[in-house]
Specification:
4-stranded antiparallel beta sheet, flat, 2 domains
Length: about 160
């Protein structure tokens, strides 16, 4: 009988690969599409809906948010200190039983997105408009927050 050298690190590595494969197979996209697909999509999208652009045009902070499929009555905007809060609800158009679905990738329900503003704004002058699924919010800066140009005189 021949002696075989035991290498525990090889056994541990093989065991780790087998466990990883079990989890990969279990959570694979096709295994439970109605449950795990929906849950993973919602976890991935959590906190990122709506997608936004925030920029400064010297006088204002401008926020543009993509909110396709919503109506203006489905959106609520609040300013709390330096936080801009965009809340809304995307409602399902019709009720269809889950067993009749082939794919269910669209997400419905309420959302809330908080955007920390870089400067103080005049809350009483904020304007919002909604067109073609894009919400644009114009937040005028307070005077102290606007950039000021100071001329430097050079003495010769």
């Amino acid at each position: 009988m021949a002696l075989v050298r035991w290498a525990p690190e090889r056994e541990i590595d093989r065991f780790r690969r087998e466990i990883d494969k079990i989890f990969e197979d279990f959570f694979s996209p096709g295994r439970f599409p109605s449950l795990f697909g929906r849950v993973t999509r919602e976890l991935e999208d959590f906190g990122t809906f709506p997608a936004i652009d925030v920029y400064d045009d010297k006088e204002n902070i401008v926020v543009k948010a993509e909110v396709p499929g919503l109506k203006k009555d489905d959106i609520e905007i609040q300013i709390k200190g330096r936080d801009l809060v965009i809340k809304g609800e995307k409602k399902k158009e019709e009720e269809i039983k889950d067993e009749n679905y082939y794919y269910a990738e669209r997400i419905y329900g309420t959302f809330s997105r908080v955007i920390r503003l870089p400067v103080d704004v005049k809350t009483d002058e904020v304007k919002a408009k909604f067109k073609n699924g894009i919400l644009e919010i114009v937040l005028p800066k307070v005077e102290e927050a606007k950039p000021k140009e100071i001329k430097v005189e050079v003495e010769e």
